Amino acid sequence: GILFSGTRADADDYNYALGIDGVYRAGANQFIAQAAVSDQSGKQGWAVDAGYFGYLGSFITFTSARVISDSFDVSDIGFVPWVGEKQFLFMSGPYRQYDTGAIRDFFVTPGIIVVQEPEEEEWSVIGLVEWNTHFRNNWGFDMNLGAGKAYEADTDYVYRDFNLGVWGRIYGNHINFGCDYEYSYNYARGFLAYQGANWFSYSYSIIPNLSVGLAANYWIEWDDNNAIIAMWPRLRPQVFIRFNADMNLSIFDELVYAIPETNWGETELLTNRVGMLFSWNFLPKSWLYIALNDYRAQDAFGDLQHQYTISAIKAKYLVYF
Fold first, then answer.
1. Which residues pair with 215 in a beta bridge?
2. pTM of the model
3. Largest CA distance in the chain
4. What does the domain layout of the chain look like in residue ranges?
5. Which of 20, 17, 19 is nearest to 39 (CA)?
6. What pLDDT is stored for residue 149 in this prediction?
7. Cα distance between residue 165 and residue 131, in whole Å
8. Which residues of the chain have pLDDT under 50?
9. Which helix H or strand E contains 276, and what residues bound it?
10. Distance between CA 256 and CA 260 in Å, rounded?
């Protein structure tokens, strides 16, 4: 595929980007590559991203590479985190499937990721191991451990991370929950410390065309003395209406709270976003989207104030030739 995006105010103020991506599949093996060039008022840059997933004998293998030049700039038309970053990943390990028994399949993949952060001369080298298991009762989990020497924000330290995701079905409906805890650089606070993220989502089908769901997050921040300094809960109840196989509507209410240290009695509502998304698959691989968002945030007096109401319409149409 090829994608061009751009904006232009005059001959001296413009931002263009041209991207191309492709995929090659052979059975369960897949290789994906993306490349893009940008021009921001004469400042030109490039970025490439590629990845492979497949099976080499009885081993499952993941590889990826991403390089973003320092001059790559799409700030007027999009967003790319960590401009100037270079990252390479390799993981491979045994994969097993079983015809009977409690376990349907599993894999364990040790690996390594090397990263050069923007404006850093040294490379971070992190050792990884992933353990993934699917059970025959439709439950499963994915666990990741990582540790190694990291260089970022003009400092070096021993990075460590634990990530666990669990999924399954309760009353015939999907449930997902997990956590991620790491010791890394907290850019918002400006120091090294532990950070934690917890998540949960569950949806329940009341009738075939109507379901309700709840997604929640609970973020935790520690200071450099290992004391909790803030917690950030997020709740997102949602209603999903399916008119037919091609047309649906989702409505949500997202609430973000702040808790100083561990003082739950001082919890404050920071933001409230109410939104809806209408989707219509009017032709094969052709979609119409209509979205609406109303956003309110806490002011200096602790009251929620209206910030903006915004709507958008997007159409995708597949042209055959």
1. 201, 236
2. 0.86
3. 67
4. 171-321
5. 17
6. 98
7. 11
8. none
9. strand 268-283
10. 14
